[in-house]
């Protein structure tokens, strides 16, 4: 029987570097990168387009069935940068717009959404062709994969996060970006605590580290035969 895939779980606030770190780790290790935030974003994108009221259990269930099928079809270890496809449509860029970022918590705060997506993440990780999974989000170390082989909480100062995001977007209004990040964190923190490391979770402050240094530090925490 094939060995269970090894899991690295990464959590952290917006802009702390989860996706870039997970991308680099997955590339280096040849593992599957599971960007859970992307699937919350897909839910918000499709929900917004179809005007799905999160309180309408039937419409929400149909929406989540669709997201679930797209998630299940996304086992592409080694593909970086990752594309996000839904029924053949490439929504990689569409899920990153400021509108989706602003609306995602309307769906991500709903318990049914979290339960259905978490179940899909666990199924994907259990049956991936990859030898391991780097999963990143907000509740990955605590709820989705509390038994992961390695669990890391990435942190960075609000200033560092806003500076990085401004550079990423080519924006000069760093203060405005800092406000957007703080607002999204505030809404997300009402649902899960991703600022306090749970027992056994390694906390890594990336404010003064380059991306390469962050990846090296995490690889150093793996058993020697898995690096
Ligand atoms: N250690 C680092 N040093 C410098 N820049 C970094 C570092 N980590 C990430 N970055 C840059 O910061 C920006 C935000 O990183 P990233 O998108 O990975 O954060 P995130 O935690 O996934 O954010 P979100 O939760 O909003 O999706 C990117 O442009 C990335 O290249
Ligand atoms: N495990 C997770 C991951 C994400 N979310 C919600 O999705 C939003 C987008 O996530 P990004 O990582 O792409 O920024 C995020 O703001 C959360 O609302 C979540 O709840 N749990």
Automatic annotation (TrEMBL):
Keyword Cytoplasm belongs to the record: yes
Intracellular or extracellular location(s): Cytoplasm
GO cellular component: cytoplasm
MF term (GO), any: dCMP kinase activity
UniProtKB keywords: ATP-binding, Cytoplasm, Kinase, Nucleotide-binding, Transferase
The Cytidylate kinase domain, residue ranges: 8-221
Catalytic activity: dCMP + ATP = dCDP + ADP; CMP + ATP = CDP + ADP
EC identifiers of the protein: 2.7.4.25
DNA damage among keywords: no
Gene3D superfamilies documented for this protein: P-loop containing nucleotide triphosphate hydrolases (3.40.50.300)
Major localisation: cytoplasm
Family: Belongs to the cytidylate kinase family. Type 1 subfamily.
HAMAP family in the cross-refs: Cytidyl_kinase_type1
Name the record gives this protein: Cytidylate kinase
Species: Pseudoclavibacter caeni
